[in-house]
Amino acid sequence: MPRVLVVGDRMQAVRLDRIGDVAVLVLTHPPVNAVSDQVRVALAEGLRGALEDPEVTAVVLRGEGRCFSAGADIAEFGGAKPLMRLGDLCQRIENAAKPVIAALHGVALGGGLELALAAHYRMAEAGATLGLPEVNLGLLPGAGGTQRLPRLVGAREALRLMLGGAPIGAAEAMALGLVDRVVEGGLVEAALAMAGEGLGPRRTCDRRTGFKDMPGYQAAVVAAREAQKGNRLPAPGRIIDCVEAAPLLTFQQGLNVEAAAFGDLVATPEAAALRHAFFIERRAGLPPAAVAAKGVAPIATLGVWGTEDQAVAVAFQALTAGLHVVLAGDDRAALVGALELIALRQEQAVAAGQITEDTRDSDWARLTTALGEAALAAADLVVASGAGPQVPFAGLGVAQVGGPQVAVTVPSGPGGLAEVSMTETCPPEAVAPVVALAQRLGWRVVFAGPGGPIELGLRQALEGAVGFLKAEGVAGAQIAAALAAYGMGSGDRSFLPQAPAGAGRILSCCLSALAAEGARMVQRGQVRRPLDVDAVALLSGLVPRWRGGPMYQADLRGMLVFRQDLLALAERSALFLPAELIDDLIAEGRSFASLNAG
Q1: Tally of structural domains, the chain
Q2: Which of the chain's termini has less CB crowding within 10 Å, N or C?
């Protein structure tokens, strides 16, 4: 049995186990072992204790639970000065006089991977994924990642990982030289065995493997900089700067360049908006408390009533997710047409290399069809698509699910947005299966009240603002150019054209219309909180994530200024009449964000 050493009063976040002559530092900070300030302090204390213990010959760093670490605590970015900076902790690990082995499983992302990069050796389970996704928050790896990673894998691969932000698997990480060994199982035992091999410390800052081909290194930097020309976001350029500096400066000078870049980036409006997006998209997807308490029952068989495009989309997604699907309708010819569309989607997926022919055949074998409703009785959940007396929002890919009190918009855009709209009297047991379906199909859910999809209301408000501007004499091409330059309707694109003359007035009008409609939705109870409006705007691709959303932008303008802008526009169009909610917030000295607490 391991001997457990309690270090300080923070060991609820980190546990130090002694197994023979090896000290094992275990991250125990659920759910994803985020490297918060509390964790960093505890790790530093545990490391100090291990290094001072004369009986300890090596240190293993691992995570408990489902992963090694999903990264830093994003809520701390831009906040108070920490007790222990992640970069300082990484340097303590790297400079340790005893070998430190990072044992990775699940995910090792962001600050979690930076911890591993500072270790002397890295071992990963075969199913582990590793990545540095900070660019998705408008940032760069700020704990030495931009300096250590190029030393191991070179500029081309380091830039690919940091500019793209996508994780890679353990096998690829080993091929690149990012990890030293990959094991199928028994990770802890393998790490302990490695610790017993008599390996000495091996500092990543001293490695030069990635600098062997300097012409190739410099060419990769030049190519990356050329590819990022026109990018409106500042983080990619600063990442390239840091990677370029890695072989040209001393390691400490490189860290200084990285720290200055990180400090600049964390203060940018783009990074602030992306942090807002990160949090609201997760909160918007949390079901109401009563639904969450009800629990989620597994779904094995999905019934789909209807033959319209949204029915085909849901049936195809369900088959891809491994569900049995019963597709039913009341028109034989239409049902045959729906089957042909599903088969066409499957063939397209095979041609694109997304699924194999065997997978296609297996998916098709789980699909049955029927005329009439009787065959749907055995399904765990039934989705009914198309217009009908009990389907409240036909025309936007909306499907009735689990009865007339719940409706869901079927995802059609790249964000995978599905809005679940519920009546006020909707029982939790009617919504819980919808949550199960969304989880199974990978939908990004936003929960809303009755009154129609949030996305539909926002798009109608934007169309109204465009019509208003045209009536005011603004050319349609000028409006389109201004919206394109802002990124509206273009998802997460950051390579945008320059704004035309008069863009400020156009954008102010359009953003005002969106936020005014959002405020009305909140007041009507159609949405739970302003953050749900922003989440829909971002996930639908209506507004880029790095803009934060219309309610976020209204808060940046300030409630008084926002109301004055609306009143000036409302003199010429009722579209901009401010909701009473805005007056109430001003009277109380509050913002839209203050309503997001619930």
Answers
A1: 3
A2: N
CA dist., res. 178 & res. 168, Å (int): 10
CA–chain centroid gap for 324, Å, is 29
* Long-range contact set of residues 337-343: C-beta below 8 Å, sequence gap at least 24: 337/307, 338/307, 338/311, 338/312, 339/367, 339/369, 341/309, 341/312, 342/312, 342/315, 342/316, 342/367
Query: Is the same domain home to 421 and 465?
Result: no
| Count of beta carbons in the 10 Å neighbourhood of residue 327 | 26
**CATH assignment of the domain containing 420:** 3.40.50.720
Specify whether 385 is located in the same domain as 338.
yes
Radius of gyration of the chain from its Cα atoms, rounded to whole angstroms: 27
**Cβ atoms within 10 A of the Cβ of 267, count?**
10
Assigned token pair, 489: 């309707």
226 given a catalytic annotation: no
Residue 361 and residue 398 in one domain = yes
Determine the structural domain holding residue 78 and report its residue range: 3-266
pLDDT at 9 over 60: no
pTM for the full predicted model:
0.89
Q: Are residues 318 and 177 in the same domain?
A: no
Question: Distance between CA 123 and CA 118 in Å, rounded?
Answer: 13
State whether 262 and 297 are in the same domain: no
Alpha-helical regions (H) of 53-144 = 86-94, 111-118
Catalytic one among 114, 125, 419, 455?
114
- Choosing from 134, 258, 455, 517, the catalytic residue is 134
d(CA 454, CA 535): 10
Q: Do residues 204 and 296 share a domain?
A: no
Domain membership of residue 278 (yes or no) is no
Active-site residue 463, yes or no?
A: no
Cα–Cα distance between 122 and 132 in angstroms, integer?
Answer: 16
Q: What are the pLDDT digits (tens) for 369-421?
A: 999 888 888 888 888 875 433 333 333 344 555 455 677 787 766 668 888 88
Q: Is 121 within a domain?
A: yes
CB proximity list for 9: less than 8 A, separation 6 or greater:
none
